[in-house]
Each structure stands twice: as structure tokens, then as C-alpha cells.
Amino acid sequence: MEIKILGTGCAKCKTLYATVEKTVRDAGSDAKVTKVEDMADIMQYDVMSTPAVVVDGKVVSQGKIPSAGEILKFIGK
């Protein structure tokens, strides 16, 4: 599973990345978490606001920092 955090590097984007990384690790998932900060790459996902979460190519959240519970749902845990 591949999880991408879309954001330009703002405080919310950094917080979301840390939250997703910790939640994935705590859940024992082997999902790969990466940051996408290049605006051209972000625009390919048609997101209207950041931060956003993409799981296996599908945008599952945008414009907010989801809770750990929501993140677990995204990764099927």
C-alpha cells in the first residue's frame, strides 16, 4: 500500500505527515508513506485544498487533518 501526503510544506501538511506515519507504524502496517510537495504533482490529483491524503492513487481526504481512527479506516485496519 502506498500513502501520499499532498501539501506544500505548511504546518498542517507536516502535522498530517507525522500523524499518518505514526498511525501506520502503530497499526503494524507496511504501507509506504511519502510526501508530495511539488505543486505540479499535487495538481495531478485534482485536489482543491491541502493537505490531502492519497491511498493507492485515490484521494481519500483533503483540506483537513483526519483523526487516527479515520486514517486506520483508509488503510483497512
Could you write a compact summary of the structure shown?
The chain is of the alpha+beta class. Helix content is 36%, strand content 25%. It has helices spanning 11-26, 39-43, 68-74, and strands at 2-6, 32-36, 52-55, 58-62.
Structure, explained:
There is one protein chain. By secondary structure, the protein is of the alpha+beta class. The protein has a single domain, classed as Glutaredoxin, CATH 3.40.30. It has a four-stranded mixed beta sheet with strand order 2-1-3-4.
Number of folding domains?
A: 1
Per CATH, the superfamily is Glutaredoxin
- Helicity, in percent? 25-40%
- Work out the helix count: 3
CATH topology: Glutaredoxin
Form type: globular
Features:
77 residues; alpha+beta; Glutaredoxin; 3 helices; 4 strands; 36% helix; globular
Give a topology summary.
Elements lengths: L1 E5 L4 H16 L5 E5 L2 H5 L8 E4 L2 E5 L5 H7 L3
Parallel strand pairs: 1-2
Antiparallel strand pairs: 1-3, 3-4
